[in-house]
Structure formats: C-alpha cells, structure tokens
Amino acid sequence: MSKAWSRQSVVEKVIGDRKAPAREASVAFAPANIALCKYWGKRNEVLNLPVTSSLSISLGALGSHCRLSPCSGSDQVTLGGETLEGEHPFVERIRDYLNLFRPDPEQSYKIEAINTVPTAAGFASSASGFAALVLALDGLHGWGLSLRELSILARLGSGSACRSLWQGLVEWHVGSATDGMDSYGEPLGDTWDELRVGLLVLEAGKKPIGSRPAMKRTVETSPGYAVWPDRVAHDLANLKAAIAAKDFERLGEAAESNALAMHATMIMAQPPVLYWKAASVTAMNDVWAARRDGVSLYFTMDAGPNIKLLFTAADEAAVVERFPALRVTAPALRPAEEA
Ligand code: PMV
Fold first, then answer.
1. What's the distance, CA 253 to chain centroid?
2. With left for phi above 0 and alpha for psi between -120 and 50, is residue 199 left, alpha or beta?
3. Which protein residues are within 6 Å of ligand 1, measured from CB?
4. Nearest partner of 157 among 177, 186, 137, judged by Cα
C-alpha cells in the first residue's frame, strides 16, 4: 500500500529547510477565479486532490488582500476591518491551516484580510483568500517558493485556491502522485483581452451548504457523478481548442454546459443539493433570451445561487443594458496590478 501523506508532510516536502526568521509583516493579493471547466469531486480529501483537471479564469482586481504579521497570544483575524471571534468557522479554518506553517507552536499570526468579492456567496473568496495567505506566508518567512510550489500549498487550504496564484486562464492539472506534487495550477499562456466576466449578485448571504460537504455528498451518493469525468475530458478539450482559436461561442457553450452538468450531478445526490434560487433560474432564462436576440452571452455558476456571465467586449454594452446591476471585469488582462 502506498504511504498516506498528511498535509504536514507535504508542507515539509515543499518548504524543505528554507527556514528564515519571520519579517515584520508581509502583504499580498490574489485574484478570485471562476472555473470554465469545474473542479467537482476529490480523490483525496486530506490533500484536496481532484478527480479531474479543471480550467479557470482569474478576475483581475477582484480577489483578496492579505496582511500577515507575527503576534503574541492567539491568532487574530480581521475581515474587512472587523475582528472575528476565535470560534468563528473562518478563523478555525485559517488557524488549522496556519498550524501547518508555524516555525514553532507558540508562534501566532495576525491576519488582516479584505475581500473585494462578496464573501461565501459562490464568488470564490476562499480560493483568493488562501492564495493570498500563502503568498503572504512566503513573503513573511522569506521562503522564496515558486508560484507552482505555492499553488500546491494553497490547494491544501482550498482546492480551487491552487488556480488563484495567476491572472488569466489557468489549468489545474489533476496529477496522479499520491503526495499531490504533480497537482497544481499552471497558466495557459494564452491571453484573450476581449473576454469579459460579469458577476451577477443575486444573493450575497451565506450559502446553505458549503462546497466541501456538497462535493463529498455528490461523489458518495449521486448516480450522475459516474459520467462527470468523461464530461470534463470532453469540455476541457473543447475549451482549450476554443481558446486557441479565439472562438467565443465554442468557449461559452462548453463552459455553460459544463456548469449545468456539474449542477445535475448535485441535484441527483441524496439528499439533493440545489443552489439555484428563483432568481438564478430567471437569470438563466434571460441569458438564453439574449442569445435568441443575437447577443453572444453565456453563463456559468458555482456552489451558490449567483450567476457569472461570459461575453466579449463587442457585446458589453448590450449585456449591461440587459443586466444593469452587472459587475464587469476584464479578467484575461495581465499583470494583476494593471487589471
Ligand atoms: O475549492 P472549493 O472547495 O471551494 O471548491 C470549489 C468548487 C467550485 O467552485 C464549485 C468549482 C471550481 O472549480 O471552482
């Protein structure tokens, strides 16, 4: 039987003997990312190793800012300037993650986080949050790790965080190693400056079930999950071909249908997982109506009720006219500071 790797042993393997005294403070930013081909299901729940590869687009200036500094006593976490209680689930998750990195058990951290995307509403704030935190850890401790190595570490906090180390189009390679060393994000290299992502905030509250338990329940109970890996292989190939050819209709069709297929696997879980609200379904119908009217518009949707619209600069005015509350980003532009 192969060795069961713990998160701690993976961290030690990545950081090795790069031990340096902590600096005074470190600041970092990481963009949120939206998957065009989704990550849904783990083959290893401890290391967040996925069943399939996935492909995302980062959201430019929308993401998480993190300031990290050493402190005494227990860890302190502020989110958007507000101090969170030690028992807050978010603080517990961060503390648990930071336990992997403390140079000595007495070392505590102060984390000041600011999200520029709505928190916990399916806008991937945990992905950008863990990616920003790992960048800040690298800066604070002066490890000088590569983005690929940081991607592996970010995955240990939240799977999709491994795609948030870069702007633009990023593929998360499924990998096959038991320690996950070949499961990380990698930028595609293609840029597509005309691409636009619009965030349609329908409900900014906390979602009824997190992606982690929803994913687990789907893998364990949904008969629909059996077809998912083949769907991903098909959609991923289609998306890459669409990106290479700058064929927006092909990209939109593949992304929209991949999102709906993911939700179909959840709906077939027992008990079912349904993130859609009436407003989500209305928005989907509005997107299809726009398409019938000749606007090249597609949607994608993650573990929440909100919808993300995909379109190009050519249709931006027509899309904003139909969805006046839309928050538009031009995500494929780089580098991060310029987006
Ligand atoms: O990384 P997690 O555990 O938050 O899972 C994210 C899963 C989806 O957002 C639904 C899909 C994806 O690929 O981002």
1. 21
2. beta
3. 35, 38-40, 54, 126-127, 158-160, 211-212, 302-303
4. 137
d(CA 253, CA 238): 9
114, 129 in Cβ contact below 8 A? no
Helix axis angle, 248-267 to 228-245, nearest 10°:
160
Instruction: Determine which helix (DSSP H) or strand (DSSP E) holds 321, and give its type and residue range.
Output: helix 316-322
**What does DSSP say about strands 108-115 and 76-79: parallel, antiparallel, or unpaired?**
parallel
Ligand 1 center to 293 CA (angstroms): 32
Distance separating alpha carbons of residues 166 and 32, to the nearest angstrom? 10
Which of 17-21, 127-131, 199-203, 330-334: highest mean pLDDT?
127-131
Query: Which of 248, 254, 250, 323 has the alpha carbon at shortest distance from 286?
Result: 323
What does residue 217 show for φ and ψ, rounded to 5 degrees?
-65, -40
Q: Which two tokens stand for residue 73?
A: 């006593």
Length in residues, the chain = 339
Pocket residue to mutate for ligand 1, from 38, 206, 276, most atoms within 8 A of Cβ = 38
Rounded Cα–Cα distance for residues 321 and 296 (Å)? 14
Task: Determine whether 242 is exposed, middle or buried from the number of CB atoms within 10 Å of its CB (0-12, 13-18, 19+).
Answer: buried
pLDDT in tens, 5-49: 999 999 999 999 887 777 899 999 999 999 999 999 999 999 999
Place of tokens 């990545």: 14
188-239 pLDDT, tens digit each: 988 899 999 999 988 876 778 989 999 999 999 999 999 999 999 999 999 9
87 SS3 class? coil
Q: Measure 227 CA to ligand 1 centroid, in angstroms.
A: 18
